C-alpha cells in the first residue's frame, strides 16, 4: 500500500471514530442567576486507583452524561485496595482521566481524599497540583500540605457511620476550621443528608457541598440522580469554581431537594419558574387561572404561606417540565391587574426543615 493511501485510511477511520461516538447527556436546566453562571459539580468520586471499580476515563464519560459540568477525581490517599493490580502513584487516576478531555467537555479537578478514623474523619482536597506529598503519617501534615498547594479542603460525610447518620462535630474539626485549613462541609453524600451540618454551614459561614462519592458505575435515572453541588461562578473555569467555593457561592442538589442560602435559592427559583398571563375563567364567580411552567427535571412543591383575600390551593405541585394550571378566586369587584400569591417552596430548603418563601406575581391579560 502506498504511503498516501495509508494516510487517507488512517485519517478517515479516526475521523469516523471521532464523529460516530456521540454522547447523550441529561440536562438539569438550572438557570443562571444575576451576576453568576450556574455550574453543576461533583467534587467527590473514586476510581480503581483507590476503592472504586471504574476506570478513570469512564468516570469522566459518566459524569458528563449525567449532566455534570465539573468533576473532581478524589481517590483515597491511604486506602488503595487494588494497588497490586492497578499500578500508579496518587496522580495517576487524574492523568488517565485527563486523556478523555478530548472526548468530553468537562472541567476536571485533581483531588485526593485524606482518610482517617473518627473523630478526624475524611477530607477532600481539590485543586491539588501534586497528590503524592499528601501521603503523610500525620493527618495535620497531610492537610497542611494540601493547603500549601492552594487546595480547597472540605470535610466529607460528617454523619457517616455515626448513629442515625447524625453529624457530630469534634474538637479536631474546631482546630481545622479555626486554622482556616478546612473551608467546606458535605451536607449530603451519596444517599445521606446531614441537617446538622447544613445548620453549621449557615451558622459558621462554611461552604456547603453535596457530592456523589461514587465508587461503582453510575446507573441512575433523572428520578434518582447523583448528588451535585451547584456552584455560582463569574467564569466557567477551574479558577472560577475555586473562587466561588472560597466565597461560599454554592447550593446542594440532593434527591428532590435543593438546599442552600436564600440569596442563591431565591433567584434560582425566580429564574426557573415561568408565569403565563392570568385569564378569567368564570367572570361572575371571580375564578381566574394562570399557567405556571417548571423547566427543572424535578417537581417543585409549593404550599400557601399566608392568608390572603385571594383563595387558592393550599398545596400546589409544579410538575417537572410541564405547565400546571393554577386556579384562584378573587374577591367581588376585584379590579387589580396584578396579583401576588405567597408560597413556601417546600423542597427548596434555606435551613433544615425550612422552605424558601416566594411570591408568585400574576399579571392579568
Ligand atoms: Zn470518605
Ligand atoms: Zn470518598
Structure notes:
The protein has 365 residues and is α+β, with helices and mostly antiparallel strands. Helix content is 23%, strand content 31%. The protein contains eight helices and 20 strands. It has helices at residues 3-20, 56-65, 92-99, 139-148, 171-178, 195-204, 238-246, 262-272, and strands at residues 37-42, 70-73, 107-115, 122-126, 152-155, 184-189, 192-193, 207-211, 228-233, 250-254, 257-260, 274-275, 279-282, 287-294, 300-304, 311-312, 315-318, 322-329, 338-351, 354-363. The strands form two sheets. It has a 15-stranded mixed sheet that branches. Strands 12, 13, 14, 16 and 18 form a five-stranded antiparallel sheet that branches. Strand 6 and strand 7 (192-193) form a beta hairpin. The chain starts with a helix and ends with a strand. The model has no long low-confidence stretch (mean pLDDT 93). One zinc ion is lined by residues 113, 122, 156-157. One zinc ion binds at residues 113, 122, 156-157.
Unreliable stretches covering 5 or more consecutive residues: none
Q: How many helices?
A: 8
End-to-end C-alpha gap: 74 Å
The geometry reads as globular
Q: What characterizes the major β-sheet?
A: 15 strands, mixed
The residue-averaged pLDDT reads 93
Secondary-structure element order, N to C:
HEHEHEEHEHEEHEEHEEHEEEEEEEEE
Note the beta-strand portion.
25-35%
